[in-house]
Amino acid sequence: MAADAKILTTANIDSKEAGLMGVAFDRFYHLHVTIVRNVMFRMGLESDLDDAVQDCFIKAWRSLPGFSGGSSEKTWVTRIAVNTALDYLRIRKREILDFNQVDVVSIVPSNQKSVEAAEIVMKALRTLKPDLQAVLVLSVMEGYSMEEISGMLAIPVGTVKSRLHTARRETELVLKRFGVNL
Amino acid sequence: MNKKQPDRLDIFLKLNAPVAPAAPDGEAERIFSKIELGPNVVSRSKNSGIVAALSLAAVLALGVFVSLTADTVRDDSITAPEVLVAAVLDLQEEEETDDLYGDWIMLVSAVSEQ
């Protein structure tokens, strides 16, 4: 958090001194682009990923002056990314993969990382409703706490726990269907 | 549910988390250029020429109108009483001069107030 704030402050000072706001934005972008893209991609944005990333950064940069520092800058940007992704999914009315129609593939050892396994995880995520998916991605893949996710999604901690429990259970069932026994 | 199961699931998901394709080249610059241009940039840039032309035309028309109105007011300040007197004379041909003079005073007063 402190490191993020320091970089941002430095970027702002530089931009004011040099009159180059673009330099500040470039730093801001490169600081957060990986997590923004990954969160959005894991939530199911593919063909519209670049558009969503662009929207996220425009929103974040414009509302940056109102950022209170109540959370880390990374958490704050991730919140914007998740909510932008949910907006895209709502508008697009993304088709959720039918659990019963998911093709069964070869067994993947549960302790092994492979391209095939990543594809299976992606497919498993797509079978979840966006709200469940968001909680699972933020908690398990990005490592945010229940309280942080509660703040990001503006839902009670109890709801986060309940959604996470449901998401885990459903994901496990889909993975079993893929032959992944955990 | 076994306590170990979520852990193993978490490890598997984290280990095999899908990774987004790399950002296209120059994405930061592209986004920043849109930020600089502000909201509704497309419609604004498309219409800016028309808006400027209409604004100029409106200003010119207003100038011409004000100029003509000012001339008319100046002319009226000279001719209005005569016109009004003529109108009164037309309407009240049969009336006495004192009454006519009274009407004339009332009309001139009304015009002056305006």
Task: Map the helices and strands.
The complex is a heterodimer of chains A (182) and B (114).
Chain A: H1 2-18, H2 21-42, H3 49-63, H4 73-92, H5 115-126, H6 130-141, H7 146-153, H8 157-177
Helix pairs in contact in A: 1-2, 2-3, 2-4, 3-4, 4-7, 6-8, 7-8
Chain B: H1 4-15, H2 27-37, H3 41-91, H4 97-113
Helix pairs in contact in B: 3-4
Structural notes for this entry:
The complex is a heterodimer of chains A (182) and B (114). Chain A has 182 residues and is mostly helical. Chain A has 8 helices and no strands. Chain A has helices at 2-18, 21-42, 49-63, 73-92, 115-126, 130-141, 146-153, 157-177. In chain A, helix 1 (2-18) runs antiparallel to helix 2 (21-42) and helix 7 packs across helix 8 (157-177). The radius of gyration of chain A is 18 Å and the shape is globular. Chain B is mostly helical and 114 residues long. Helix content of chain B is 80%, strand content 0%. Chain B has helices at 4-15, 27-37, 41-91, 97-113. The longest helix of chain B has 51 residues, at 41-91. Chain B is rod-shaped. The relative contact order of chain B is 0.04. Chains A and B meet through helix 2, helix 3, helix 5, helix 6 and helix 8 of A and helix 1 and helix 2 of B.
